[in-house]
Amino acid sequence: MAEIRQLRDKQPDSEKITINLGFVDLGRIDLLVQEGFYSNRSDFIRTAIRRQLDTHGDAVDRSLERHTMELGLRDFGRAELEQVRAAGEVLHIKVVGLARIGSDVTPDLARATIGSITVLGSLQAPADIKKALADRIR
């Protein structure tokens, strides 16, 4: 029998959100989809959001600089956090996008090296890490 290996779980590249729309707005979106302007409702909504974000791009950039936040995907693993601990430092994590704390990080290591964590977007971490950092997540 062939050796069976478990593949690593695929991490989602997006976050699902729920919005409420009036019936008229929803009907107008459905009309645009029916006419072929968009492939589906989600495509329309993603496009509208991206256009709004582009419109406010300068304001977002200035805010990122003012708050010294990282933009995009930021991973924190055991090796990096052990280096932080060895240097006697504490991280104050600020991310706009996705912050991930690896499954190789222990709750004790996370508490010893992460002073605060602010994520505008999504934080992915094992449940025990989120519990250990609950008082530090803003």
TrEMBL record:
Which ranges form a coiled coil?
none
Fetch the InterPro entries from UniProt.
Answer: Arc_rbn_hlx_hlx (IPR013321), RHH_8 (IPR041088), Ribbon_hlx_hlx (IPR010985)
Q: Which domain of life is it from?
A: Bacteria
So which residues are the signal peptide here? none
List, alphabetically, the CDD domains matched: RHH_NikR_HicB-like
Biological process GO terms, please? regulation of DNA-templated transcription
What protein is this chain from?
A: CopG family transcripitonal regulator
